Amino acid sequence: MSEIGSIRPGVAKNDPASVYRSPLDIVNEVMLTRGEKIGTLERWRQSVMQQMAATDDGMRTEGVADTLAATLGDIGKAIAILKASVVDEV
User: Fewer Cβ in 10 A, N or C end of the chain?
Assistant: First the structure.
């Protein structure tokens, strides 16, 4: 779990991979609202998709595709958790 004030929200929102080890770490981040968390995860997803497109363009990425695929899976799980928490609150 994150500690209050342990992150720089601007950096975390714009470059989440540099702040969090896993997309699932964002779910419990106290310095971001639920909407900011979802937006951050969507930006991370876009970044991963761009990296995957680069691998299709011939960049050397030995073993990276599996890691990127796992990250995409974790992003999907994290977003699902956050969206499910809204349903639980209603």
Answer: C
